[in-house]
Amino acid sequence: QMLRHHGSVAKQKPSSRPSQSAFQQPHSKREMFLENTRVVVRIRPLPEDDSRVLSHIDHNTSPSKQAIKVVTSLSMPPNQNTMLAEPQTIRFNSATSLDLISPAPVLKATTYSFDQVCDEYVSQEELYRDYLSPLVTDLFEGYHSTFLAYEQGGIQKTFVVDELCKELFSHLSEVLNRESDSSLSYGMAMTFVEVYQEEVYDLLATGERKGLRIREKPKGTHGSVYVEKAINARVNNAQEMLSAYKAGCKRRRKAAHRGSGCTSCSHTLLTISLVVTATEYPGAAYGQLTVVDLANAQRQDSFQRTDGIRDMENKWINKSLAALGNIFAAQE
């Protein structure tokens, strides 16, 4: 089984801010989507403390290609024999494509292309610098950006997202401090919601959980949709952002997992909103950055407790991921 991290970045140019391309021939929605979307795949070793999996990674380096052979043994439920999966080989063709080679005797190679392929040597700092840090610049320039993270399952993707968010909060705080002496005034706020079984819940709210409604904003106003009654917390520095984020993470729904300790049972959307005003100019500029941590459906035997709740959660997770896939497919 190949375990991997997916991250995609989609950047939308606001209509109120003309760019150089705005004076050229207009692009179709499809062209704009493809131009402003980046898909990155990260492959990393299986966790050493994952009791479900016994694996090793063999490197076979040549002047032009690098191959990683992943051999996985999945431990089955009690009273059943252990199943040993046949080796799968991941071959790096370039910085933007890889082959997934099926085991012998088939040896069929399927090539997948991305905007970037990262191996297991890419650090957290490099991930942030290359794929999330540029979106901070876009935020302060009035762009709307989204970073989505998805995994195959049970390899601690949420931990990776948490570390990226810590870097993000520190970076935002540094920029705010650096710009504090300028003639511009900055106001920053954050919302943090989860989508669980097709219901939206506010992770920054305390007390009883209540499902919230998604509303569409009036035409001509900033943004398109919003979550009604979701808390929009004003934040001024990294400590306030991190404190609100940690409080929200504690309220996120999770389940005990045999391999990674626990796994998320809901999608989360962390949205940072920025309003920039200038005393000598009327109006304001708006920027928005959303970090989406997508849940993934798990095999039932990977949970420490299996019941109807896990079945229902998997059902809704699969349904929402299929809907998201249809959205991306419609742009191709």
List the helices and strands and how they pair.
Blueprint: E1 4-12, H1 29-35, E2 37-43, E3 53-61, E4 66-74, E5 83-84, E6 88-92, E7 97-101, E8 109-113, E9 116-118, H2 124-140, E10 144-151, H3 157-178, E11 184-196, E12 199-202, E13 214-216, E14 225-227, E15 233-234, H4 238-251, E16 254-257, E17 261-264, E18 267-278, E19 281-293, H5 308-330
Any overview of this molecule?
The protein has 332 residues and is an alpha+beta fold. Helix content is 25%, strand content 36%. It has five helices and 19 strands. It has helices at residues 29-35, 124-140, 157-178, 238-251, 308-330, and strands at residues 4-12, 37-43, 53-61, 66-74, 83-84, 88-92, 97-101, 109-113, 116-118, 144-151, 184-196, 199-202, 214-216, 225-227, 233-234, 254-257, 261-264, 267-278, 281-293. The strands form four sheets. Strands 1, 2, 9, 10, 11, 12, 15, 18 and 19 form a nine-stranded mixed sheet that branches. It starts with a strand and ends with a helix. The relative contact order is 0.14. Mean pLDDT is 76; it is low at 1-26 and 50-85.
